[in-house]
Amino acid sequence: MATTSDIRNGMCLEFNGNLVTVVSFQHVKPGKGPAFVRTKLKNITTGKVIENTFSSGHKIQETRIERRPYQFLYKDDMGYNMMHLETYEQISLDKDLINNIDLLKEGEPVEVVVHADTETPLYCELAINVTMEVTYTEPGIRGDTSSASSLKPATIETGATIMVPLFVNTGDKIRIDTRDSSYMERVKE
């Protein structure tokens, strides 16, 4: 059993029957009254972030999770098939377990987060940024930057639509931030 003094960012806890990760925490010692720890906890299954306050010294149930390197192979009627990069073991994941599934392309490396005690996959994360080719976008008109947001929609090779600057054309390769599906930069090859 851990206590509130052991809390750190990224720690996985069992809280109210759910698995949550600590997004942020702050130890508070007011001038009057006992100390406490204010936390933001993200539910692993739903993604919902809640705030909770623990009194100082409160017992918490820490849960071990492991991040394992996998590679996305293909999708079939059973789900999304992944291969472990070290043991070559293959698993199939449901699409609900994969974050930003519209940016997932065959052969891409991913991290599968597994509950260490039960060997159950909890969720799958893509790399922080991915490089994709733009398959279609309207041509940008030179000098059309009078609006505050000079972005246009572009369809990438996985079929997802991303907002890109006006200078990006069909056939360009772009880097995309998978955390919020936003354009980062154009890639020169």
**Intertermini distance:** 52 Å
Helix percent reads: under 10%
CATH topology of the largest domain: OB fold (Dihydrolipoamide Acetyltransferase, E2P)
Count of individual beta strands: 16
Element-level helix/strand string = EEEEEEEEEEEEEEEE
Estimated radius of gyration: 21 Å
> Strand-residue fraction?
over 45%
Strand order of the largest sheet: 1-6-2-3-4-5
Query: How many helix segments?
Result: 0
Number of domains: 3
Q: Roughly what is the average pLDDT, rounded to an integer?
A: 89
CATH class of the largest domain: Mainly Beta
Which stretches are low in confidence, meaning pLDDT under 50 for 5 or more residues running? Answer: none
CATH superfamily of the largest domain: Nucleic acid-binding proteins
CATH architecture of the largest domain: Beta Barrel
Notes on the protein architecture:
Helix content is 0%, strand content 54%. The protein is flat. With 189 residues, the chain is mostly beta strands. It has a six-stranded antiparallel β-sheet, with no helix packed on it. The protein has a five-stranded antiparallel β-sheet with strand order 9-8-7-10-11, with no helix packed on it. Strands 14-13-12-15-16 form a five-stranded antiparallel β-sheet, with no helix packed on it. The protein has strands at 2-3, 12-15, 18-28, 36-43, 49-55, 59-62, 65-76, 79-84, 90-93, 109-115, 120-126, 129-137, 151-156, 161-165, 173-177, 182-187. The protein is built from no helices and 16 strands. The chain has three domains: 2-62, SH3 type barrels (Roll), CATH 2.30.30.30; 65-126, OB fold (Dihydrolipoamide Acetyltransferase, E2P), CATH 2.40.50.140; 130-187, Nucleic acid-binding proteins (OB fold (Dihydrolipoamide Acetyltransferase, E2P)).
